[in-house]
Each structure stands twice: as structure tokens, then as C-alpha cells.
Specification:
mainly alpha; 72% helix; 0% strand
Amino acid sequence: MMFIPRLLFSVLFIITTTYASQAFVERLYTNVLDRTADTSGLTLWINELSNSTAADVANSFFNSQEFTAKNYSDGEFIDIVYRTYLNREADVSGYNN
């Protein structure tokens, strides 16, 4: 009888993890690259999260040619980082430090 709850828990864990991974990658596309994710890129980065840390994936977005080619100012970069990681606008101390 314990097999069903364990199986259900495992399935729910996989679904939740997959949804969280997709939401994380979509957030990077939206905030860092300023566009929606293409299907192949979304799939690639979700799969990459299985083998890397979220920080590694985020760093890949920030270091991508697509992002660096935008030549954001320091202030714009700070705004993007705050929106991506903290889901808010930067405050004065964020700009000054």
C-alpha cells in the first residue's frame, strides 16, 4: 500500500521540479535577454539544469554573446540583475555599492 503514495510523491516531485526549472529559464530569457524563449533553447537550458547549478546557467545567460552585445550601462546592468534575482527594482544602495 505504501508504493502508491511514494510513486505519487515521486511523480509530483518531477512535475514540480520540471515546472520550476522551466519558470527559472523563462525568467532568464525575459529579464536577461529581453525576449521570450524559443522552444529549442528552453529545452536545452532546462536539461542543462540537470547537470549544472542554477548559478552556472544564469551566468551563461549573462555572459552570452546575445547579452553582452547589448552593451548595457552599469546602471542598466544593475537593474537587470535586481529584476532577475530579486524580482524588484534596484535601490540607491544597490547603485552605490
